[in-house]
Amino acid sequence: MANAEEHAAAIESVNESEVGGRTIYVSESLSKEKVTENKKRYNDRKKKYDGTKIYVGNLNFETTSEDLQAAFAQYGQVHDCFIPLDFDGNTRGFGFIQMDEEDALKAIEELNGTELDGRTLNVNKSLPKGTRASPKQVKLYVGNLSWGTEEGALRELFEEYGKVIDCYIPVDRETGQHRGFAFVTMDPDDAVRAADETDGYELDGRILRVNEAQPKGSGRSYNHNDGYDGGDAYDEAEDESWGNDAY
After folding, report:
1. N or C end of the chain: which has fewer CB within 10 A?
2. CB 178, CB 232: distance < 8 Å
3. Closest to 79 in 3D by CA, of 107, 115, 58, 57
4. What is the pLDDT of residue 34?
5. How far from the centroid of its chain's Cα atoms is residue 103's Cα?
6. Alpha carbons 48 and 66: distance in angstroms, whole number
7. pLDDT score of 234 more than 50
């Protein structure tokens, strides 16, 4: 580019434009010195706020960092708040909060299982990357849902077998139509009984497929409106509820 103004104009003209059906994001390339400076600032920030990192799962995709920080600020100073984004700039359904140890423990105790923007939060200490806590709750995958099945009806069915901690039917962001499957979270004993009793149960004219949700890469994946195939794999680490320090 001939000068800085043309350089800036070029970036502005193509940033967030669509190419091949995908939105591209363009910004100025940072110099090696600037990258080193940013990395040092990030590491200094981590050292400065040597507190407890909290994992917050099952976030509403519309929840902002400001919303999340405000929820935790009731229990002490929030040193850092981060909600990861995917390549399209959409939130990934989970976030991280950093607080002093005492404040963090209080926030976890008070906020785990509460609702924020219509979603039941899963709040716990963030674990080092590559480790996973033994779940105190079990998430069930419910496949082959009728397009007309609503969350209330599904929750009512599973409540016959115990307390439903969370019931979530994923929705296509573009059409608003649910995707033909759901996740129901229950205590382990209740979940085992519910899976045994509801697998093969007919709801709204469809035969349900119910079993424990499997992480991506486990060899099983879920089709949008049937049992299994290679289509719509559920990624437990990226999508929802378990403490996983990917930040």
Report:
1. N
2. no
3. 107
4. 64
5. 23
6. 21
7. no
pLDDT of residue 247: 41
Please report, as a single letter, which amino acid is at residue 190. Answer: D
Q: How many residues does the chain have?
A: 247
The yes-or-no verdict on residue 225 having pLDDT over 50 is: no
Q: Above 90 in pLDDT, residue 87?
A: no
Looking at 18-171, list the stretches that DSSP marks H as alpha helix, in order from N- to C-terminal side.
Answer: 32-48, 65-73, 101-111, 151-158
% the chain with pLDDT above 70: 66
Helix (H, G, I), strand (E, B) or coil at 183: strand
The predicted pLDDT at position 220 comes to: 44
Q: Which residue, 169, 140, 126, is CA-closest to 236?
A: 140
Burial class (CB in 10 A: 0-12, 13-18, 19+), 90: exposed
User: Which parts of 44-163 are beta strand (E)?
Assistant: 52-57, 78-82, 94-99, 115-116, 119-120, 122-125, 138-143
Extract the tokens encoding 212.
Answer: 């424990």
Average pLDDT over residues 127-154: 80
Q: How far apart are CA 230 and CA 236, in angstroms?
A: 16
